[in-house]
Design a protein that fits this description.
single chain; alpha+beta; Aminopeptidase; 4 helices; 6 strands
Length: 164
C-alpha cells in the first residue's frame, strides 16, 4: 500500500500489528520506491493505490486503494489505514464509502471486499459502518507477520446485482 513517509512515521506503532509492511519504520528512499511502484501498478490497472487528503486542510491523512483486482468479475478489495492524529473521527468510514461507490458506479464492480484480522476491531468497525456484511471468517488463513502464529481473517463484502 502507498505509505507517504511522514504519515507512516507518525502512525507506525498503530500500523505495526496489522500491516506487514510496517514491521520497521521505512526510510525516505524506500517510500519513494514504493510510490514509484504504486504509480506503475496504477497505470497498469493492476492495483489502484489512493492517497487520502483532509477536505479542509489538504493534509495527507492516510491511504487506501482497490487491491486484489479481478477485472473478469469485476471484484476489488479495499485496504486502508489512517494517520494516527486523524483516527476516530469517521474519516476512514467516509473514505471507504466513497471508494466503494467509485468501485461500483465508475469501475463497474460486482463485488467489493474488506478483509482484516479478527483481532483488528477498528478495521472491522469501519467495514460495518460503511455498510459491509460479514460473510465469514477464514480460520487459520495466514500467519501473523510479527508472531508467526496462525491468524483468522474476517471477510466483509458488498455486492451489486445487474439490476442496480
Amino acid at each position: 500500500m502507498v505509505r507517504p513517509y511522514a504519515a507512516v512515521v507518525e502512525s507506525i506503532a498503530e500500523l505495526r500489528p496489522w500491516m506487514p509492511w510496517a514491521k520497521e519504520t521505512p526510510t525516505l528512499e524506500l517510500e519513494e520506491e514504493v510510490m514509484r511502484h504504486a504509480h506503475v501498478q496504477f497505470m497498469a490497472r493492476s492495483d489502484l493505490m489512493l492517497l487520502l487528503f483532509h477536505r479542509a486542510s489538504g493534509e495527507l491523512i492516510g491511504a487506501s486503494g482497490l487491491h486484489r483486482i479481478d477485472w473478469s468479475v469485476p471484484r476489488f478489495e479495499i485496504g486502508y489505514w489512517i494517520r494516527t492524529s486523524y483516527s476516530g473521527q469517521g474519516l476512514m468510514t467516509e473514505a471507504v464509502s466513497g471508494i466503494t461507490a467509485f468501485a461500483f458506479y465508475t469501475l463497474g464492480a460486482r463485488r467489493v471486499e474488506i478483509r482484516c484480522n479478527v483481532e483488528n476491531e477498528r478495521s472491522a468497525a469501519v467495514a460495518r459502518r460503511a455498510g459491509y456484511t460479514l460473510e465469514g471468517i477464514l480460520r487459520h488463513d495466514e500467519r501473523h507477520h510479527l508472531t508467526g502464529a496462525l491468524r483468522d481473517t474476517m471477510v466483509f463484502a458488498q455486492v451489486r446485482d445487474d439490476d442496480e
